[in-house]
């Protein structure tokens, strides 16, 4: 880690804890800053705040007093999920205070080069694929960022011989200033998180912050299946390497069933360890990174062939009586579910779908659910999904929760079928997050295995 002096004796406010907030507070304290942590959770119920206080870091819990900003803070580091119209953040910006997320700190102290991966769908899978392929090729890749390992913690341990493979959300990328990855990957762009960003244009600009400091010596890997990415390609100083499943490009592309890089066959679609057209795109982006590092084709093929997916992202769970189970709880929008379905024969799929009602209809999903064996529908959005199922000619049953849905899907299936949890909706009507929803699916499958 670089022992920088930028923060020595400067007052810094860390707003919001969780993993990234704690990591930022401890790092800033180590760098000599005078740190104050402000978290909404009451102190008595906040073991992280208690631990920080024990280590000599000032904490203010239970509320967010605006008068706190009357102190002479040089910087505010906020939790990525806190919106910019939050009163504390808005006041800080009004006062001219820089507002960062902790990935900026990670960049400033990192001895290791950074590969940054962002996009609407496929971030976590692509991030994990890249790390596994690089490690298989003899590099030392370390996962961090939005994937669950705070970047500012991992960066402290990384050396010049390592590579930080960092998943980045639009929320994190809004809070960067000098952040500069050596390689940036943009998996795809669809309208999402508009409630946070206000418009699709603002959302895309947040994502595009990933390359704002990059130059010709750096690389941006873009999905040329999308017009939006093609338009962005002319708005960067970095070297652009495209990938595409629809045409031959000067990068990574699909030719028939062969994944190629600049005219060189690398592997076949059937070699990829996880199904779905979206995973072909993820693999192409991974190949583009791997070839830049000089990884040989055999190492790429072996790593991607053994890739078993990521928990809650089209995760293969196993079989019961020759019925396969897939956990795709991370599919919180229509496009993600469309991509999940693309990897299967619909006539054998029992799809579990439904969740938070955001007011949208599901007509875009109709072509993708046609021919499904059955649907099991639940959640606030159930009536809207049923309307799409009726139009698609698909029969369905109701479920009260994920456990009930899993049991009903299993009861409706027979040998050779696939039970797929791919909700096309956020989880917040029933569950705290998609992980909780997916874990309940996994637990129920385990119960069914014991009973089989």
TrEMBL record:
InterPro entries given in the database record: Mur-like_cat_sf, Mur_ligase_C, Mur_ligase_C_dom_sf, Mur_ligase_cen, MurD
Primary enzyme class: ligase
SUPFAM superfamilies, alphabetized: MurCD N-terminal domain (SSF51984), MurD-like peptide ligases, catalytic domain (SSF53623), MurD-like peptide ligases, peptide-binding domain (SSF53244)
Catalysis performed (reactions): UDP-N-acetyl-alpha-D-muramoyl-L-alanine + D-glutamate + ATP = UDP-N-acetyl-alpha-D-muramoyl-L-alanyl-D-glutamate + ADP + phosphate + H(+)
Predominant place of localization: cytoplasm
A cellular component annotation (GO) from this entry: cytoplasm
The keyword Cell membrane belongs to this UniProt entry's keyword annotation: no
Keyword match Cell division: yes
Sequence ranges assigned to domain Mur ligase C-terminal in this UniProt record: 312-424
Residues in Mur ligase central domain copies: 117-290
UniProt-listed Gene3D superfamilies: Mur ligase, C-terminal domain, Mur-like, catalytic domain, NAD(P)-binding Rossmann-like Domain
GO BP annotation list: cell division; cell wall organization; peptidoglycan biosynthetic process; regulation of cell shape
Origin: domain of life: Bacteria
Family named by the database record: Belongs to the MurCDEF family.
Primary role: Cell wall formation. Catalyzes the addition of glutamate to the nucleotide precursor UDP-N-acetylmuramoyl-L-alanine (UMA).
Protein name, entry field: UDP-N-acetylmuramoylalanine--D-glutamate ligase
Source organism per UniProt: Streptococcus minor
Taxonomic lineage of the native organism: Bacteria, Bacillati, Bacillota, Bacilli, Lactobacillales
